[in-house]
Amino acid sequence: MTDVFTQSLQALLCCSTEDKIRKIRALYQQVSDDDFVTSHREAARKIPEPGRPMLPMHVHPTEVKRRRLGSVEGRIALIHAVAHIEFNAMNLALDAVYRFRDMPCKYYRDWMRVASEEATHFKLLSARLHELSSHYGALPVHGGMWAMAVETDYDVMVRMALVPRVLEARGLDVTPPMLQKLSAVNDSKTVAILSRILDEEVEHVKIGNRWFGAACQQRGLATDETFKSLLYKHGKAALRGPFNKPARLKAGFSESELNELDGIEQLFREEAALV
């Protein structure tokens, strides 16, 4: 019988991207088809850094250069940055499986599905980099997404609020402008990849919304007020507009919540400007 916690940890700590993806796909197949164990004597351990290859080099976010998409180098930089986001997303999904115990079986199936789809996204982007005579690891990256994983590792409700509903939902907001710019330079191959990713990320955010709502309901908490309080505690720097409201509605956000997010984000920007 599959030990989902041990195997997700092994994949999470794996440094080879190819081995990590193989482990993810094997575990997803197992939890989809078979019974699996969700009891464990040991509590989940803290993981300051997941397994990752020696390259790409990690730097401070301000050291990651921005390039225009009109050049091949600019498109490579964009694709590389998105590939790194997808690599992080694999690890975030694995950690959601490994870390939070006593969840329903559907929770683990949902997040292994996410991990598997993020792995596919990463492979598609890596292949596109090779077509452009580059590769994952060729450019420096930053590790801001994992910092939020560490900050939210104490509570599944907090993790669901701030990783899928803030960090991953940000992808719903920024991808349409990328698609417009790439279409303008006739990069149809990258447009096709990012369009697929956008469609599948809507469902990933919806999964986070669903489990955040379930956690709030179990504790008798109002979702909107709980989310706002967690944003103030952990997510001020991460929440950025403008928001892709049609995609976020498909992903399970409510109209009232999205209207309120505009005001919250504006308040956070004004507070940051005063610091």
Name its key features.
single chain; 275 residues; mainly alpha; Ferritin; two-stranded parallel ribbon
Describe the 3D structure:
This protein is an all-alpha fold and 275 residues long. It has one domain: Ferritin (Up-down Bundle). Helix 1 runs antiparallel to helix 2. It starts with a strand and ends with a helix.
Brief account:
The chain is mostly helical. The protein is 69% helix and 1% strand.
Query: H/E order of the elements?
Result: EHHEHHHHHHHH
Instruction: Give the beta-strand count.
Output: 2
Q: Tally the structural domains.
A: 1
Query: Any idea of the CATH class?
Result: Mainly Alpha
Tell me the fraction of residues in β-strands, as a range.
Answer: under 5%
CATH topology: Ferritin
> Which residues sit in consecutive blocks of at least 5 with pLDDT less than 50?
none
What class do helices, strands and sheet pairing give?
mainly alpha
Number of helices: 10
End-to-end separation in angstroms reads: 54 Å
Helix content: 55-70%
Mean pLDDT comes to 91
Strands in their spatial order, largest beta sheet: 1-2
Largest sheet: 2 strands, parallel
Radius of gyration: 18 Å
Based on CA inertia axes, which overall geometry fits? globular
**Can you tell me the CATH architecture?**
Up-down Bundle
